[in-house]
Amino acid sequence: MDTGTIIVDIEQSLPARALKVAIYARVSSTEKKSNLDSQAQRLLAYCTAKGYQVAKVVKETGSGVNDSRPKFIALLEDKTIDLIVIEHKDRGTRFGFRYIESLLKTYGRAIEVVNQAENANEDLVADLQSIIYSFCARLYGQRRAKRKTEKIVAELEKGDARCS
To answer: Could you confirm whether 63 is annotated as catalytic?
Structure first.
């Protein structure tokens, strides 16, 4: 200042705490396993370019519609991780991404998406695709469950016929 007083902003003078960063890579099926490794490598390259120190690399196979992916759940619950880096929104979840983002934010954590949708139409098409995929998965799951039930009933009826 003009008077010779020096004001030091302590928050700016202290080194920033290093972020503990985790990478999350996901593919929907084992047939796409080779893409899982290349996805993780692309994310590592991205983090290196951004200057992030990657503490954990998590790879998982499972549907983005399925909410019981144990590795992703564990990563979300790991309070020591400050930032989760994913390639596309749908690698984290097909629906409700903003909920995850908001909840992490309330705990001082974040999720960073490398490849954002370039425009609203692309985002809308991706949402529509996710909805159709979800409904198809449920429909096929119901059919599979019905066939399984019918098979169990048939086996039980066979057993009853033998006992008679």
So the answer is: no
